[in-house]
Specification:
With about 110 residues, the protein is an all-alpha fold. About 70% of the residues lie in helices and about 0% in strands. The chain has one domain. The chain is globular and about 45 Å long. The protein starts with a helix and ends with a helix. The structure holds zinc ion.
């Protein structure tokens, strides 16, 4: 599922470099955060196209907050897949919301 296919086309992954002063900047940061969440899910499921995968992997290697989110997501998914009874990943939902909110408030 492509949540933000249009963003992928021109996304420069600029949130780590600033440009968050304006409302437009804030909206862009939120769009990027959603993109990071979406890309983390699709990377983990091996559903990213090669170019987006390359850009995303490069970004998370340079961006500590996105790297941390991706690692948390992968760890949680791995635990869920190992589990016999699948519990709702409450911590992941909470961390995702906190991550999105922290980007929105910057
Ligand atoms: Zn980032």
């Amino acid at each position: 599922m492509h949540l933000l296919g249009a963003i992928e086309e021109d996304l420069a992954f600029g949130h780590a470099a600033g440009d968050l002063e304006t409302l437009a900047g804030r909206n862009r940061a939120l769009d990027e955060s959603i993109f990071v969440v979406d890309s983390s899910i699709r990377l983990t499921d091996d559903e990213l196209d090669p170019l987006t995968k390359q850009k995303f992997v490069k970004h998370v290697s340079d961006c500590s907050c996105c790297h941390e989110f991706l690692e948390q997501y992968r760890t949680t998914i791995a635990l869920i897949r190992e589990a016999e009874d699948i519990e709702p990943p409450k911590e992941l939902v909470e961390k995702t919301l906190i991550f999105l909110e922290s980007q929105r408030l910057q």
